[in-house]
Amino acid sequence: MANPAASTPPDALMNDGLMIDGLMTDPYGTYARLRESTPVRRVSGPDGSPAWLVTRYDDVRAALADERLSVHKKHALPGSYRGFSLPPALDANMLNMDPPDHTRIRRLVVKAFTGRRVEKLRAPVRHTADRLLDAVESDGRADLVAAYAEPLPIITICDLLGVPATHRRDFTDWTDALIAPDPARPQRAKEAVVAMLGFYTGLVADKRKAPGDDLLSDLIAARDEGDRLGEDELTSLAFLLHFAGYENAVQLIGNSVLALLTHPDQLAALRADPARLAGAVEEFMRYDTSAVFSIRRFAREDVTIGGVTVSAGETVFLGLGSAGRDPARFPDPDRLDITRDAGGHLALGHGIHRCVGAPLARLELTVAVGALLERFPRLALGVPEQELRWRPSMRSRGLLALPVVF
User: Fold this and answer.
1) Strands 380-381 and 315-318: what pairing?
2) Quick one: pLDDT at residue 330?
3) What is the rounded average pLDDT of the residues 98-111?
4) Residue 310 in 3-state DSSP?
5) Cα–Cα nearest to 335, from 380, 298, 303, 287
6) For residue 315, what is the enclosing H or E element?
7) Would you call 261 helix, strand, or coil by DSSP?
8) What confidence tens digit (pLDDT) does each residue in 235-251 have?
9) CA distance 234 to 88
């Protein structure tokens, strides 16, 4: 297959993302044009290798559940985009596995990562949210990303996994190095991977010797008819829960608050009826999800998507962000409406790879937004919207900073 970069306009963007003109500067306008003109389109992956991008809701949803599209790299053609290159001890996670391995591991994870364990986090998450807001209240202003959206999820994930508080700063630095690599420091991402591998290997060993009241200890103890998780599987799961749990929550909190502050009618409606918050959370995820694309897929065989044939071994990106703005599924999709039934959005995936941490994501977002609105009835943007800057990454859509005044 010819490299699509050869025919891409020279001013097109490729910065840790897909090479599509305008995707960073005007993502939702770009998605709309793609859905109308080329809903299944050839693109370049972050490393310049060829792939396909799918943007319509029905096609994305069907592809997420299509067993002919694999997440296992063994099905990738040489030279196609394969995603992160990780050591085996971090790569053996559910996002890189098909059934039956995926089924086996997810079953063990669900035994440990229960709804009851997630619900037990509600009070601690609210306590953390209140403490973080206490720290900035007297200032009358804050960067909500640095002061709130970033520390809240990392504290929650560290508590969930039983990670000592002294390592929270390390977790933030490692994750940032992978989400938005610094072109001036090309080794930083590799160094982060090495550091994470060493840390998680030691943490699993420590929890095995001295289990605690945390998810990692429960995962070590999980059994299913005699089956248990191996060392690499445990290390990879800890990495996955940390990386995905932190990255998505940070961006979702920032994106959701921004959506409310730029839609004062919806902010007023939510303040007037806080009981709408649970439904509003679904609308926030539909309207401006942090997970721009699903984990890349590889066609096991020739597959027709939206009338286009994807050949066996080719890479496919499924546009979760675009699907949430598809007018064929969500009428008037560019309008934030907290009264909308946003059920069926794909921000947390669909099918067997649907986010295992979805209940935690919803809980964190609900608590974070609810606490913020309760504490600051005069919350407003601290700068004009056009001055806000977004992370230079297509793996995750999120703000670099969110200045607000109280």
Assistant:
1) unpaired
2) 98
3) 90
4) strand
5) 287
6) strand 315-318
7) helix
8) 888 888 888 788 889 99
9) 12
403 φ/ψ angles, rounded to the nearest 5 degrees: -70, 130
**Amino acid found at 190:** K
* Model confidence at 2: pLDDT above 80: no
**CA–CA dist 242, 174 (Å, integer):** 10
Which DSSP category does 293 fall into?
Answer: B
Q: How far apart are CA 208 and CA 236, in angstroms?
A: 16
Adjacent-strand bridge partners of 60: none
How far is 183 from 38, CA to CA, in rounded Å? Answer: 31
Total-model pTM: 0.89
Q: Which residues pair with 298 in a beta bridge?
A: 70, 315
Tens of pLDDT, residue by residue over 106-162, are 988 888 888 888 999 999 999 999 999 999 999 999 999 999 999 999 899 988 988
The label of the residue with tokens 């990454």 reads: 393
Instruction: Tokens for 267, please give them.
Output: 């902010």
Check: CB of residue 228 under 8 Å from CB of residue 222: yes
From the list 366, 363, 351, 279, the residue with the least C-alpha distance to 318 is: 351
Q: Any idea which residue has 């440990």 for tokens?
A: 112
Phi, psi dihedrals of residue 310, rounded to the nearest 5°? -100, 125
| Dist. CA 353–CA 98, nearest whole Å | 9
For residue 125, which of 306, 318, 289, 363 has the smallest C-alpha distance? 363
* Diameter of the chain measured on Cα atoms: 60
Q: How many angstroms separate the CA atoms of 183 and 266, rounded? A: 39
Query: What is the DSSP code (8-state) at residue 319?
Result: B
Q: Is 220 exposed, middle or buried (0-12, 13-18, 19+ CB in 10 A)?
A: middle
CA quadruple 115, 223, 67, 251: dihedral sign: positive
Beta strands in 132-243 (DSSP E): 141-143
> How many other C-beta atoms can be found within 10 angstroms of the C-beta atom of residue 389?
8
DSSP annotation of 78 reads T
Strand order of the β-sheet with 315-318 is 40-44, 50-54, 315-318, 297-299, 69-70
**CA distance linking residue 365 with residue 278, whole number of Å:** 9
113: nearest Cα among 127, 94, 126: 94
Q: Which amino acid, 182?
A: D
